[in-house]
Description:
Number of helices: 12
CATH topology of the largest domain: Aminoglycoside 3'-phosphotransferase, Chain: A, domain 2
Number of strands: 11
Shape: globular
CATH class of the largest domain: Alpha Beta
Distance between the termini: 46 Å
Helix content: 40-55%
Largest sheet: 5 strands, antiparallel
CATH architecture of the largest domain: Alpha-Beta Complex
Oligomer: single chain
Strand order of the largest sheet: 1-2-3-5-4
Number of domains: 2
Radius of gyration: 20 Å
Amino acid sequence: MLINKKKLVKIKGDASFREFYRKKEKSKSSIIIFSKKEKRKNLLIYDAINKILIKNKFIAPKLIKQNYKNNFIEVKDLGKKTALDIIKKKKNKLPIFKKIIDLLIKLQKVKTTKVKNFQNKLYKIPLYSNKVLFDEAKLFCDWYVPENANKNKSQINKNLIKKIKKLLLSLKQKNNIFVHRDFHVSNLMHFKSKLALIDTQDAVLGNKAYDLVSLVDDVRYKTSNTFKQKVYNLYFKKNKESINKNFFFYDFEVLSVLRSLKIIGIFTRLAKRDKKKLYLKLIPYTWKLIDLRCQNNELLIDLNNYLYKYFPKKIRNKHAN
């Protein structure tokens, strides 16, 4: 079975190698996802994670048809409205974030770690190990430093790598929780008055604080520091019996900074390698998030002081609108 793209309606894509199309037949619609590059992750693993979620009573894109050989799958259409679209229209945004926090808490209770994919092979959710976290944060060294440091690039990176490794070794909590890995309001669909999960292909077993970081310190959706604290408090109040307050907040801040370094690296790579320069305008706010989270922890303060030495405000803000 082949698909004629001319008969489909193209949907705005994301930073991945995927292409999304809406297929309409009479009163029904579905989504066709094409992915030639990284197709195992974007098609096979994506569906496997969605199967796990659906099994655990979450709303996620259910597979209708697959044609892996020809680089596409067809999934259920969850509509056009994201949680962000709804939030933007509300004066009081906290009630929606309460629902999102409830969804996150439910997600963190998922214990299913294996599933048969549509090729009838067993897929096991991987561990979000320190090596993976390191490789992600190192994207800052690989892409942003060469583009923005005037001199001593190799020495800057050598010292940065040491500081990143120290931060990783300082994390307090276990890697044993289902982590979506990109849990923010643009990846939640508002479907039949409920919240649905998309963009699930990167799910891992990791730190309990990670998805809350993605939600609270969302680089695409700017919120005040006061609002960030309110959302954080919503989560903590519902979890205070099961988490160590100090350990959790420590990991939250460390993971936020590591995630922001990764994102700055990815956005720089998207601009240089893939010619997707629109992501550069998000870098100044990502730097602000690093500043916010580098105030309470000696290792983070040391890291930020070092970063300021080579990347002062002039460099951090160079793509600001």
